[in-house]
């Protein structure tokens, strides 16, 4: 299955992507994770992306599209994938459609995680991420036994640089201006399914998997 997860920053895309990708046995491809790993390694791509990420702005389309094209060419993505955080602009969506059409295939479904701005701010301001295994935690909603230590692998947790209040505000603005139009784009293709992303993580996963079942 070829699937896209769309939703505002902090909607729970990364959290849900892990479960949904495992359920479908497809790779989870997160552009945010790929950029962050390039930033950590200090690659030229990471140096360029960091400027935008720290400001809460989107990395330019051309850079992002080329990166995704390379990732989708890897063998593990040939039978299906779950994209988390891409596409995020109409040009990115059009580029993805073209890329898949050239391969003789197409997206199956786009899942939109629906959650309001107040909840997004609560989720992002308490998010902690594991430096070792990448698991996403929350100080209140999904707390570890010891603060700043991952229960799964024992590595240290960190707070993302772009989870500062002023950067969150810019990310929400970018989402409204540049990404929200994708709801109409995929709606017009008949591929969009909206999911209520509030409530416990497991409930959201169940809603997502039920939606896949009814459309798959
Ligand atoms: P990216 O990493 O994609 O960030 P984002 O879209 O802002 O999304 P987040 O990762 O912040 O949130 P999420 O929805 O994954 O939520 P999570 O599961 O962590 O992008 C970062 C930057 O990279 C961008 O700003 C941009 O600069 C660049 N970039 C990336 N892709 C790009 C693209 N295509 N084009 C251009 N630039 C791009 O959950 C959040 C918190 O809530 C966690 O603490 C979690 O534990 C908690 N939580 C989750 N679900 C629940 C629940 N049901 N109840 C309570 N708490 C919950
Ligand atoms: Zn860990």
Describe this structure in words.
There is one protein chain. The chain is an alpha/beta fold. It has a domain at 2-115 and 179-215: 3-Layer(aba) Sandwich (Rossmann fold), CATH 3.40.50. Helix content is 50%, strand content 15%. It has 9 helices and 8 strands. The chain has helices spanning 13-24, 31-41, 44-55, 61-72, 90-102, 117-125, 165-179, 181-188, 201-215; strands at residues 2-6, 28-30, 81-84, 109-114, 127-130, 136-138, 157-158, 192-196. The chain has a 5-stranded parallel sheet, sandwiched between helices. A 3-stranded antiparallel sheet has the order 6-5-7. A hairpin with a 5-residue loop joins strand 5 (127-130) and strand 6. It is globular. The mean pLDDT is 95. The structure holds BIS(adenosine)-5'-pentaphosphate and zinc ion (ZN). BIS(adenosine)-5'-pentaphosphate (AP5) binds at residues 7, 9-15, 31-32, 35, 52-53, 56-59, 64, 85-86, 88, 92, 123-124, 126-127, 136-138, 141-142, 162, 171, 200-201, 204.
How widely separated are the two ends? 8 Å
- Fraction in helix: 40-55%
Instruction: Give the SSE order as H and E letters.
Output: EHEHHHEHEHEEEHHEH
Q: Please give the CATH architecture of one domain.
A: 3-Layer(aba) Sandwich
Give the overall shape, derived from the CA principal axes.
Answer: globular
Function: Catalyzes the reversible transfer of the terminal phosphate group between ATP and AMP. Plays an important role in cellular energy homeostasis and in adenine nucleotide metabolism.
Keywords: ATP-binding, Cytoplasm, Kinase, Metal-binding, Nucleotide biosynthesis, Nucleotide-binding, Transferase, Zinc
Pathway: Purine metabolism; AMP biosynthesis via salvage pathway; AMP from ADP: step 1/1
Protein name: Adenylate kinase
């Amino acid at each position: 299955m070829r699937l896209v997860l769309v939703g505002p920053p902090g909607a729970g895309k990364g959290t849900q992507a892990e479960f949904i990708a495992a359920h479908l046995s497809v790779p989870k491809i997160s552009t945010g994770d790929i950029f962050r790993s390039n930033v950590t390694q200090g690659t030229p791509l990471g140096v360029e992306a960091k400027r935008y990420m720290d400001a809460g702005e989107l990395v330019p389309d051309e850079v992002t599209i080329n990166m995704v094209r390379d990732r989708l060419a890897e063998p593990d993505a040939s039978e299906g994938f779950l994209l988390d955080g891409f596409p995020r602009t109409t040009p990115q969506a059009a580029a993805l459609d073209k890329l898949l059409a050239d391969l003789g295939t197409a997206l199956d479904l786009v899942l939109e995680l629906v959650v309001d701005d107040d909840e997004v701010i609560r989720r992002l301001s308490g998010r902690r991420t594991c430096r070792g295994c990448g698991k996403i935690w929350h100080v209140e909603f999904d707390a570890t036994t010891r603060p700043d230590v991952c229960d799964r692998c024992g590595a240290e947790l960190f707070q993302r640089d772009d989870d500062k209040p002023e950067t969150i505000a810019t990310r929400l603005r970018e989402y409204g201006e540049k990404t929200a139009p994708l709801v109409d784009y995929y709606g017009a293709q008949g591929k969009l399914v909206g999911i209520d992303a509030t409530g416990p993580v497991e409930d959201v996963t169940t809603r997502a998997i039920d939606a896949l079942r009814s459309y798959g």
